[in-house]
Amino acid sequence: MSYTVGYFVGSLSSTSINRRLAAALQGVAPKDLEFVEIPIKDLPLYSPDFDEDFPLVAQDFKNAIAETDAVLFVTPEYNRSIPGALKNAIDWASRPYGENAFDHIPAAVIGASVSSIGTAVAQQSLRGVLSYCNARQMTSPEAYITWVEEDYADDGSITNASTEEFLRGFMTEFRDHIERVLTVLPRPDA
Ligand code: FNR
């Protein structure tokens, strides 16, 4: 069985370390996981005024989530929470009322920061949001990544053996989590 994982990069930065982390994670993931990025940068700010008639960019965004088996959030921490662009994207995905794209979806969160906090506070915030959205989150292992530039090569490979082992283990656990959720508790529209 293979699974499609839609991933969100919470940063809009052209030099994002979280985008590089997302690439590194794909390199160490089990081979039966396929990855597709679900971009968030072109979404306008959400308003309930759009609920009657979502713009095409938001329809495409929600359709992209619907085509995945699971979602992975790779995000920085901004002022002890998640970046506004990511929260905006989640708000779009959750609406209109009754059409929440994250309902029952297997999900995992991870993030990198240049500080020792490793996005721990942002991830707690994100977990609360995803709980409300009824996503089936992997709760363990947690992954709070303090970015060490020398541990990652430009081609996306990981050059530090213990970092590679940790991230490989994270993705292996996520794969098993996806299988458990989809076997025991399939999404309603599956
Ligand atoms: C930050 N940064 C940051 N880091 C952290 O550990 N906790 C925080 O609360 C914040 N807050 C914060 C706010 C804003 C507006 C910016 C721009 C940055 C620093 C952050 O970890 C660093 O910029 C990372 O490189 C961001 O990840 P990307 O964008 O490179 O993926």
From TrEMBL:
Q: NADPH-dependent FMN reductase-like domain: which residues?
A: 5-144
The name this protein carries in UniProt is NADPH-dependent FMN reductase
